User: Which sequence fits this backbone?
């Protein structure tokens, strides 16, 4: 039943995206040449100790200032058989670096390369597989590390100016500009769980940009570039790229920095996402939903007294909770209204 619920969700997401293919934009590396890298940039300190604030007219100055926070992440698989190349953001002078989870992979040997060519090893500290994020720690000296300035992705508006900086297709130091094309986008992620509230941009990103950053006009990181729309299956940019909001990362950073792998909550039900309000199509055996008394055919109208009219509203509310939380689920069943307590269970993301 669990696998059926996951597959149903993936199909729904694919349809919502016009049956297009979505791909992560890390660069897989094999014995053949052609790997790519990505750079992440930041706002640096000014002479008076404050942060430099650069206008959208000074893109060249912005790029020059933020370059010290750029890292390249090289992930080599066991035995040296293939790996990946991506990028990351320096979080602090203790060596913590934020990147995409799919960049670092599993059981890999990690190397961090700074903008000046200095390199050192790294290990994974914590992961948020559900949001495709990871924190690694390098052994590079503190005086070589310049932390990035993180922005507020909740303040981003459609039409805002953005830049992406990186090394797509081994074209070093490439800077692309554009605007925020959309907000609140969703993509199918690991284990059937959707990645939500993604930032869509038309600033060109390509293989090699994974784990890099999307910047606003002040050089603040507002998103982690993670995926592109890929209807042609050729893994090239067609004008639609996606970034994980930086606020999503900062919500879970404390746990990842403590060495935890993030768990995300779910009700344990299958839903008809096109119905309004959402209707339950399956209840997973042994889940909190079954224990709480939810049934197939129930129509969910509220969570904890908050009215729910769409699938997205329900999913977003559940995402705001924690595993183990009890949610009061109000449903319509056979013409009657019931409110049932449901304990949230974790997604099995592998």
Assistant:
């Amino acid at each position: 039943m669990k696998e059926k619920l996951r597959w149903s969700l993936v199909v729904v997401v694919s349809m919502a995206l016009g049956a297009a293919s979505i791909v992560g934009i890390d660069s897989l590396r094999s014995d053949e040449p052609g790997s790519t890298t990505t750079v992440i940039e930041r706002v640096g300190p000014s002479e008076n100790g404050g942060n430099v604030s650069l206008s959208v007219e000074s893109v060249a100055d912005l790029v020059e200032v933020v370059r010290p926070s750029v890292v390249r992440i090289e992930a080599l698989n066991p035995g040296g058989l293939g790996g990946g190349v991506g990028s990351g953001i320096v979080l602090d002078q203790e060596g913590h670096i934020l990147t995409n989870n799919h960049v670092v992979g599993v059981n890999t040997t990690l190397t961090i390369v700074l903008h000046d060519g200095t390199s050192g090893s790294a290990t994974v500290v914590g992961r948020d597989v559900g949001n495709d994020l990871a924190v690694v720690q390098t052994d590079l000296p503190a005086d070589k590390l310049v932390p990035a300035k993180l922005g507020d992705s909740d303040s981003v508006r459609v039409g805002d100016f953005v830049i992406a900086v990186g090394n797509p297709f081994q074209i070093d130091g490439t800077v692309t500009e554009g605007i925020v094309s959309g907000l609140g986008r969703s993509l199918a992620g690991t284990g059937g769980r959707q990645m939500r509230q993604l930032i869509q941009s038309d600033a060109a990103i390509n293989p090699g940009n994974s784990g890099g950053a999307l910047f606003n006009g002040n050089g603040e990181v507002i998103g982690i570039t993670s995926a592109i729309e890929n209807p042609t299956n050729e893994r090239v940019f067609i004008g639609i790229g996606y970034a994980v909001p930086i606020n999503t990362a900062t919500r879970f950073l404390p746990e990842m920095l403590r060495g935890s792998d993030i768990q995300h909550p779910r009700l344990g039900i299958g839903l008809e996402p096109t119905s309004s309000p959402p209707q339950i199509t399956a209840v997973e055996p042994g889940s909190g939903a079954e224990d709480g008394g939810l049934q197939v055919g129930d129509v969910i109208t509220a969570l904890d007294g908050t009215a729910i009219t769409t699938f997205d509203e329900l999913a977003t509310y559940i995402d705001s909770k924690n595993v183990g939380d009890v949610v009061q689920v109000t449903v319509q069943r056979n013409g009657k209204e019931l409110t049932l307590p449901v304990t949230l269970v974790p997604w099995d993301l592998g």
Notes: The domain at 265-346 is CATH 2.30.42.10 (Pdz3 Domain). Residues 1-22, 27-56 have pLDDT under 50 and may be disordered. DSSP finds six helices and 22 strands in the chain.
